[in-house]
Design brief:
By secondary structure, the chain is an alpha/beta fold. It has 3 domains: 152 residues, Nitrogenase molybdenum iron protein domain (Rossmann fold), CATH 3.40.50.1980; 207 residues, Rossmann fold (3-Layer(aba) Sandwich), CATH 3.40.50.1980; 39 residues, no CATH class. 47% of the residues lie in helices and 15% in strands. It has a 6-stranded parallel beta sheet with strand order 1-11-10-9-12-13, sandwiched between helices. Strands 6-5-4-7-8 form a 5-stranded parallel beta sheet, sandwiched between helices. Strand 5, helix 7 and strand 6 form a beta-alpha-beta unit. Helix 2 packs across helix 3 and helix 10 crosses helix 11. The chain is globular and about 85 Å long. The N and C termini lie far apart (88 Å).
Length: 440
């Protein structure tokens, strides 16, 4: 199921190419269908939302069901287990404390000549959170609610909207509603799929438009986000899950195998790679993977992922292992070694880093505080986790005094003339001429 490869080798290079090059092929017919859905929502609004929701989610759905009212929210708390509500609140508080440190402030600077400039930081006016339904509402993705809503709340977004597909009876899982209220969501709409993304981007009678759309989803949702990008901001396009675990002989092979499988069970396209400098440990990980996979309810998915995009690679050193990890630029990187802090400075490309034996990736997924909406498919080379900055925009401010203008005017005219933008040059010259006339 999983091969042990030795680096450097042509075999490893082929494997790395397969992992970094894996893409879900998009059927042109699927793209056409998503475009039709977007256009239908733009044209028909709530009528289109009801049509698609009846077709795919809730057969008796109507426009009156789109919004979630106070009574439904109160009923959710009555149905929810108080102990789980407490866990949700504890997770929310951890996520809030972490993201509080990401706040950005406006700043301004002045120069002796009276020139004044700076940057205003403001939240977007409205943010849309897409939360997948999770097996017809039976596996509520509470963590996604918290990870998308809390940063928006910390950023100060005044209108936070959540969309998520209803269950067959037109209701939502109560834990999704509880998590939304606890995280500070202002409005909840029971629509999902590409039509929900369209509603957030274009607006309907029931769903006011937003400025930013974030959150994971299936291929329909990802394509819809891609197509509305530019009209609204998006956090990125979610690809298959991935983890790289760098481990030495001090690690427990059972722990490493469990962490690899935590990603492999997501999707047949998921990638799970162990990098180690110890040949004996590599064999222990392979044996542990075989044993643990046999016990998984989702073992078929895990086996497909591991057989295609999983490997245990033996490197000549841990430093070399980090270099390989940087090439993969994984969503999740675990450093399960004697001294993870010694390796951390070498890490250049990773969505999130998990340090040491007692920091499995699942802690970050649910509870610790850092965001679990991370760059995938190698985009950690240039992209970052979803955070407070996703919901902020920055506006520069500039004010010149007469003295500063006189000093810089000729230089600006020269550059504008070089670029043959005469009107730009004239907008400065006319002020220079006015000053000359006034002096005369």
């Amino acid at each position: 199921m999983v091969a042990v490869l030795n680096y450097p080798s042509a075999e490893v290079e082929r494997f790395l190419s397969a992992v970094t090059g894996r893409q879900v092929a998009v059927d042109p017919e699927l793209e056409r269908r998503v475009r039709e859905i977007l256009e239908a929502v733009r044209r028909d609004g709530d009528e289109a939302l009801v049509h698609f929701t009846r077709q795919f989610d809730a057969p008796e759905f109507s426009a009156a069901h789109i919004g979630v009212g106070p009574e439904e929210m109160d009923r959710a708390y009555e149905e929810a287990d108080p102990d789980l509500v407490d866990v949700i609140r504890r997770a929310r508080d951890n996520i809030y404390r972490f993201h509080e440190n990401q706040k950005a402030s406006s700043w301004f600077m002045t120069r002796p000549d009276g020139c004044y400039m700076g940057q205003m930081v403001r939240p977007v006016s409205a943010a849309g959170l897409y939360v997948p339904g999770g097996q017809g509402g039976e596996t509520p993705l509470v963590s996604t609610v918290l990870m998308t809503a809390v940063p928006a709340r910390v950023a100060g977004v005044p209108d936070i909207a959540m969309v998520t597909p209803p269950r067959r009876d037109g209701t939502l899982n109560p834990y999704l509603l509880v998590a939304a209220r606890e995280a500070g969501v202002h409005r909840i709409h029971k629509v999902g799929g590409a039509w929900a993304v369209a509603a957030l981007a274009y607006g309907t009678a029931s769903i006011p438009p937003v400025d930013v759309v974030v959150g994971p989803g299936n291929i329909y949702v990802s394509l819809a986000k891609k197509m509305v990008s530019g009209r609204v901001g998006i956090d990125g396009l979610a690809g298959p899950s991935e983890v790289v675990v760098i481990a030495d002989k001090t690690a427990d092979a059972r722990f490493v195998a469990a962490d690899l499988l935590s990603q492999a069970e997501h999707d047949p396209m998921a990638s799970a790679v162990c990098l180690t400098d110890n040949a004996g440990f590599a064999q222990e990980v392979v044996a542990a993977l075989e044993a643990q996979t046999a016990e998984l309810p989702r073992q078929e998915i895990a086996r497909q992922a591991l057989s295609r995009y999983g490997a245990v690679i033996r490197t000549r050193s841990l430093e070399e292992a980090v270099d390989l990890a940087n090439r993969l630029a994984p969503e999740h990187l675990e450093l399960v070694v004697r001294d993870p802090w010694a390796l951390l400075p070498r890490v250049q490309n990773a969505g999130a880093v998990f340090m040491g034996t007692h920091t499995p990736e699942a802690l970050g997924d649910y509870f610790a505080g850092p965001n679990h909406v991370l760059p995938t498919s190698g985009t950690a080379r240039f992209a970052s986790a979803l955070g407070v900055e996703t919901f902020l925009k920055k506006t520069t401010v500039l004010a010149y005094s007469l003295e500063a203008f006189q000093r810089d005017a000729t230089a600006v005219v020269s550059l504008a003339t070089l670029e043959r933008l005469d009107a730009h040059a004239r907008s400065v010259k006319i002020r220079m001429d006015e000053k000359t006339s006034a002096s005369a």
